[in-house]
Each structure stands twice: as C-alpha cells, then as structure tokens.
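Write out the 3D structure for:
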Amino acid sequence: MKPLIIIPARGGSKGIPRKNVKLLGGRPLIGYTIAVAEAVSAQLGGAVVLSTDDDEIATVARSLGLTVDYMRPAHLGGDHVGSREVMLDVMAWADARGMAYDCVILLQPTSPLRTEADVLGTAALYTPEIDMAVSVCESAANPYYTLFETDAEGYLHISKGDGLFKRRQDVPKVLEYNGAVYVINPASLRRMELGEFTRRVPYEMPRSRSLDLDTPDDWLLAEMIVARMKESEL
C-alpha cells in the first residue's frame, strides 16, 4: 500500500472559529492529525499533503515539521465545497508531479483523539476491490428504538422496524461515521460521490475516541478529555 494522505484544513470554519490553529491542550488542533499522518506515512510510505487555503494554517503546519508544497485554490475554500472536490484537486496536483499512490487516506483535523493504530487498522481493511474502508462507532441513537419520523398525518412512527423492541439490548446494532479515517479507492472517487459508494467496509472505533469537533461544546469536551489524558501520563 502506498497512500496519498490528505489533511483538509480550510481557514473559514464557522462553528469553532480558527479551530485548526486553536490550541487544544497547549497544541494547535491540526498538530494532532499531522503527528498521526506522519507516523502512518512512516509505516506505509506515501506522501502527507495539507490542503489549506489559509496562510496561517500553512505556517503552523510548517512549524510542526510538515512540508507544505500545495495550497488549495481559493474557489475550493468555501463551506459549500465538499470533501470529494478537495481530494480530487490534491490528486490532480499529485498526478501532475508523478507521485504514485494506490489509495487516498483522508484525515480530518476535527478528530484529534484518533490514533495511529486507528488509521492503520482502517487501512488494513482496504483492498482495491472496495470503494472505501471507513472508521465508525456505534450510534447513540437507533432507528429501531429511539429515532422516529412523522407520517402524512403528523403522527410519529419508528424509523425502522415495527417498533416492538422492549429493550435497547435487543435492537440491531447501528453504526455511524465518526469522521476520523477514510481510506478511499482513487478510481471510485473519480467516478462518483462518496455517498454513492456501495462497497464500504467499517473499522469500528470506541465512542471515547470518536469525538468530532464541530461546536464550542465539542471543544470543551475535548479539552477535558485531553487534560485527563495528560494527567494519566504523569
């Protein structure tokens, strides 16, 4: 396996302003992902590419030891731009430079608790016959038990199944993307949107490492977790 490891980090985050360079536990948020990406690159080979449209993010990444040769075009910097467009542009840049890769690993900086082992574990599930291996965790909400929809008359009905389960322990297990690791087939990515993938293999992570930073409350929780981790290391 020779991955192209992409770290997407645009400058215009709204939920947590400037989150990619904001200090979490005394370290820029993006530093957690850079450290994991470089450790994975040392194990698997391949290049680590930061995709950012922001000079400050690029400067911080360089200060953390990451080579930053690519800058994301301005038209791909808005919040309307999807991950696929960002990855395709990095792939085109890598192709133009003759960089060889057989899969794309997307590591979003908003998952600082993800580990090198999580990335390697997801990558180990990838084969060229599938579209993607992706990290997941067990969902806190379950369409067989706690998720409801309204019908045409406005009445609630269970989202899936007959609604007769009496205990949470009896319902089918439901997984959700946790945003931490995506190992993607480049050919599949060129052909279709990620949501169109049908050959997806899950790598399950515990919820304790599945925090995805999107709101100020998420950030406060991350600070508590990181502080607790530091205390346990003393």
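Residues 216-233 form the longest helix (18 residues).
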